[in-house]
């Protein structure tokens, strides 16, 4: 098997016991979706503040959204707790010598929850749908030029250029398969139709609020289907989720605010987080061409913003000092991570004012930003507002529910925003998710010739050359200040250990749906 070397930083992350969100799923109630599938006869109750905006596999997204997709849609390749790639819907795969084509052999005993069979034509339809859907992870199949059906259960996909993370992508969003009949249908936004372990009970599910998931009968891999029923409850903020955890209404939940984490721990809940940093807290300055806020087109202005905010004071006030200082998009376990870059923007209001004057804005300007309730805690909001005001930048806040923030950011509604973003799974995915011209988190489609030249060189480079290219990209981004990380602030998982067990998945900020099991 010939393939491009895939360097997955963070792969040394040790699997820990933890708990967080899971997902909803399936076809129409009563369509292959009883409560007596391969589950162990127990129920799993998950609390979360995150809900997908669509159940279309091309639109579900990454990170916290991964378990939603996994509960409904099997993927072509599965990533294990040991961070290895193993067969799932695909029993084998092989790369061409030039790494432009992957050939896949499929299982012949899988059906979707609407009764349709999984075959090469179904995978072809999913690949083409995913590539055309312009979803948040559309880059996972970037440059797809041809899909050929070679047999009933064999096909190949060819790309314009090698994709360094293609195996990872086919274990993630690009590899999740829906019934071909559902693709492009309006109903797929609310009722998924997959071959996964669970299906949605439409009679007891309320979109955006509560999802009841029943184990699918005759699921082809019962070892991955450990519950008869999963109830996924959504809370508008972490306070509601914390109260549900403490009162026993849910078994697990994902917490980010330090006060809530401390409260949960004091209440006897188990708290776990990743061994290697995954999530960073800081600002995203999206409008780098000055479309909405002309001043942001200058890198000097963006650097001034980085100097103006006392991130350590925010860390102490909002997170009890738990954050680890950081200025980079890449994970510390990456060979391209450069510790020296973390000192490039010390808190320095005087330097910020000098940069603003040099950029031609000595009197400052107004910066509109969203204030997402439940995500932007008051101490962080105050720190941003006061720090920028001291150098002449007035923040014009728009208060919105946190559930709206990420979809509205991707739609290009905001020039800048406070964010909590991830640095995994690989260097290439970080580049494709945040920096590429058509990246999900580059909503204004900003491009730069120097950056693009570095990106274009990566697919055909050797592993050693890739390390150097990623290091140059990392340094370029820090100096250009498209994003301004402040510190690592890990998401934590509160778990009621007497009801369920769960293990953290390397390179994802929430456990996979397969990693939960009844405590008994």
What is the CATH topology assignment of the largest domain? D-Maltodextrin-Binding Protein, domain 2
| Distance N to C terminus | 42 Å
Number of spatially distinct domains: 2
Instruction: Work out the radius of gyration.
Output: 23 Å
Unreliable stretches: 1-39
Main sheet: strands, sense, barrel: 7 strands, mixed
Give me the CATH architecture of the largest domain, please: 3-Layer(aba) Sandwich
User: Class by helix and strand content?
Assistant: alpha+beta
What's the rounded overall pLDDT mean? 88
Classified in CATH, the superfamily of the largest domain is: Periplasmic binding protein-like II
How many β-strand stretches? Answer: 21
Strand order of the largest sheet: 8-9-10-1-11-19-12
Q: What is the overall number of helices?
A: 13
- What is the general shape? globular
Which oligomerization state do the chains in this entry correspond to? single chain
CATH class of the largest domain: Alpha Beta
Estimated helix fraction: 25-40%
Strand % is: 15-25%
Describe the structure.
With 520 residues, the protein is an alpha+beta fold. The protein has 2 domains: 43-250 and 492-518, Periplasmic binding protein-like II (D-Maltodextrin-Binding Protein, domain 2, 3-Layer(aba) Sandwich); 279-488, Dipeptide-binding Protein, domain 3, CATH 3.10.105.10. Helix content is 25%, strand content 21%. The chain contains 13 helices and 21 strands. It has helices spanning 66-72, 120-132, 166-171, 238-247, 258-266, 299-308, 311-319, 349-358, 378-390, 402-410, 427-435, 449-457, 463-480, and strands spanning 43-48, 77-79, 85-87, 90-95, 101-106, 144-151, 154-159, 198-200, 210-215, 229-234, 252-255, 270-272, 279-285, 324-325, 365-373, 393-401, 416-422, 483-488, 492-495, 500-502, 516-518. The strands form 6 sheets. It has a 7-stranded mixed beta sheet with strand order 8-9-10-1-11-19-12, with helices on one face. A 4-stranded antiparallel beta sheet has the order 4-5-7-6, covered by helices on one side. It has a 4-stranded antiparallel beta sheet with strand order 14-18-13-17. Helix 12 (449-457) runs antiparallel to helix 13. The two termini are 42 Å apart.
């Amino acid at each position: 098997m010939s393939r491009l070397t895939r360097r997955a930083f963070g792969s040394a992350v040790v699997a820990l016991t933890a708990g967080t969100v899971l997902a909803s799923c399936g076809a129409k109630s009563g369509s292959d979706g009883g409560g007596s599938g391969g589950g162990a006869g127990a129920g799993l109750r998950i609390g979360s503040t995150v809900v997908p905006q669509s159940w279309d596999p091309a639109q579900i997204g990454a990170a916290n959204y991964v378990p939603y997709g996994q509960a409904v849609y099997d993927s072509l390749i599965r990533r294990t707790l040991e961070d290895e790639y193993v067969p799932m819907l695909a029993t084998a795969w092989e790369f061409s010598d030039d790494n432009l084509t992957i050939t896949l052999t499929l299982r012949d005993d899988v059906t979707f929850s609407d009764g349709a069979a999984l075959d090469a034509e179904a995978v072809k339809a999913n690949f083409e749908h995913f590539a055309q859907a312009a979803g948040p992870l559309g880059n996972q199949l970037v440059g797809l030029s041809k899909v050929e059906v070679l047999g009933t259960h064999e096909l190949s996909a060819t790309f314009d250029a090698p994709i360094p993370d293609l195996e990872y992508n086919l274990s993630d969003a690009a590899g999740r398969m829906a019934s071909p009949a559902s693709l492009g249908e309006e109903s797929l936004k609310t009722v998924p139709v997959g071959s996964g372990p669970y299906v949605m009970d439409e009679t007891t599910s309320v979109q955006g609020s509560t999802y009841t998931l029943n184990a699918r009968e005759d699921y082809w891999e019962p070892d991955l289907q450990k519950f008869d029923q999963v109830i996924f409850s959504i809370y508008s903020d972490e306070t509601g989720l914390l109260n549900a955890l403490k009162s026993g209404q849910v078994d697990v939940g994902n917490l980010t605010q330090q006060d809530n984490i401390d409260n949960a721990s004091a209440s006897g809940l188990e708290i776990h987080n990743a061994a290697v940093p995954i999530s960073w807290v800081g600002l995203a300055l999206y409008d780098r061409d000055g479309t909405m806020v002309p001043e942001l087109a200058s890198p000097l202005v963006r650097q001034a913003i980085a100097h103006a905010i006392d991130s350590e004071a925010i860390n102490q006030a909002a997170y009890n000092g738990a954050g680890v200082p950081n200025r980079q998009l890449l994970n510390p376990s990456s060979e391209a991570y450069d510790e020296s870059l973390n000192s490039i923007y010390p808190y320095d209001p005087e330097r910020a004012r000098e940069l603003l004057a040099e950029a031609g804005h000595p009197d400052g300007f107004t910066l509109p930003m969203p204030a997402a309730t439940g995500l932007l805690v008051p101490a962080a909001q105050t720190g941003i507002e006061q720090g920028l005001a001291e150098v002449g930048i007035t923040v014009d806040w728009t208060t919105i529910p946190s559930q709206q923030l990420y979809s509205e950011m991707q739609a290009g509604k905001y020039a800048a925003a406070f964010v909590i973003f991830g640095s995994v799974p690989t260097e290439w995915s970080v580049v494709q998710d945040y920096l590429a011209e058509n990246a999900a988190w580059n909503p204004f489609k900003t491009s730069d010739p120097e950056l693009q030249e570095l990106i274009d060189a990566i697919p055909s480079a050797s592993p050693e050359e890739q390390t150097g290219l990623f290091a140059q990209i990392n340094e370029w981004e820090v100096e250009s200040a498209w994003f301004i990380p402040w510190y690592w602030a890990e998401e934590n998982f509160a778990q009621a250990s007497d009801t369920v067990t769960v293990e953290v998945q390397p390179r994802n900020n929430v456990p996979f749906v397969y990693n939960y099991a009844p405590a008994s």
